[in-house]
């Protein structure tokens, strides 16, 4: 997989995933899916598929509210990804807008950002209540930022999300989900290097996805 900033698009907006990039939520997604299945009355195979299929319906709201309880408990124990704040400060100095794109609930994401003093770095937060797919969320960033797609950088720890969002013609970076300060700092430095245009392409091995399945 290649992480690259295209020659024709100087990055002017960055869309960051929440779980796996901004923080790491310790959630047993198998248990969460079983709970969603109990509420829905049928076997939910994937929360992501469920959200997209049932968006705008009462059952979506019921399941989403129950998942919010699980996410909130996990976020209260979670820590900020090492070196994230320094990264956000640097892109802010470069006048690059930052957005959160997350399949978690808005309350959970905004609560975490406020708790850790990060809210001021972000121009917008797009969550499942507004848009039930990662591709749709990144599309919203393109529209709201007023930037060309090639000027938007999407950062996610999920191979699937990266592949889908590449279809929007945005630049993508596959982030190494971790809580190791040294590894995390190297990841953020790679992103800054790509943004600065010093290296147009870098190859990383695939790492496990921590997003809801």
- The fraction of residues assigned to DSSP E strands is 5-15%
- Quote the CATH topology of the largest domain: Rossmann fold
**Low-pLDDT stretches:** 198-213
For this structure, what is the CATH homologous superfamily of the largest domain? HAD superfamily/HAD-like
CATH architecture name of the largest domain? 3-Layer(aba) Sandwich
Q: Rg from C-alpha positions?
A: 17 Å
Please provide the count of β strands.
7
Amino-to-carboxy terminus distance: 21 Å
Main pleated-sheet profile: 5 strands, parallel
Structural class: alpha/beta
- Taken together, the total number of domains comes to 2
* Count of runs of 4 or more consecutive helical residues: 8
Which sequence of SSEs, written as H and E, runs from N to C?
EEHHHHEHEHEHEHE
Describe the structure.
Mean pLDDT is 90; it is low at 198-213. This protein has eight helices and seven strands. It is of the alpha/beta class and 213 residues long. The chain starts with a strand and ends in a 10-residue tail after the last strand. The chain has a five-stranded parallel sheet with strand order 4-3-2-5-6, with helices on both faces. Strands 1-7 form a two-stranded antiparallel sheet. Helix 7 links the parallel strand 5 and strand 6 (171-174).
């Amino acid at each position: 997989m290649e992480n690259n900033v295209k020659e024709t698009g100087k990055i002017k907006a960055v869309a960051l995933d929440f779980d796996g990039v901004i923080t790491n939520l310790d959630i047993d997604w198998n248990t969460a899916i079983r709970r969603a299945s109990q509420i829905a009355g049928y076997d939910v195979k994937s929360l992501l598929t469920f959200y997209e299929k049932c968006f705008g319906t009462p059952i979506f709201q019921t399941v989403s509210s129950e998942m919010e309880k699980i996410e909130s408990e996990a976020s209260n124990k979670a820590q900020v990804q090492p070196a994230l704040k320094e990264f956000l400060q640097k892109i802010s100095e470069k006048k690059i807008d930052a957005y959160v794109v997350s399949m978690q609930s808005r309350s959970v994401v905004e609560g975490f950002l406020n708790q850790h003093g990060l809210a001021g770095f972000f121009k917008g937060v797009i969550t499942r209540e507004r848009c039930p797919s990662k591709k749709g969320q990144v599309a919203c960033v393109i529209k709201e930022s007023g930037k060309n797609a090639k000027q938007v950088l999407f950062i996610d720890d999920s191979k699937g999300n990266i592949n889908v969002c590449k279809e929007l013609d945005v630049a993508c970076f596959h982030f190494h989900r971790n809580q190791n300060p040294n590894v995390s700092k190297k990841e953020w430095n790679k992103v800054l290097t790509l943004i600065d245009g010093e290296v147009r392409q870098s190859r990383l091995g695939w790492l496990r996805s921590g997003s809801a399945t």
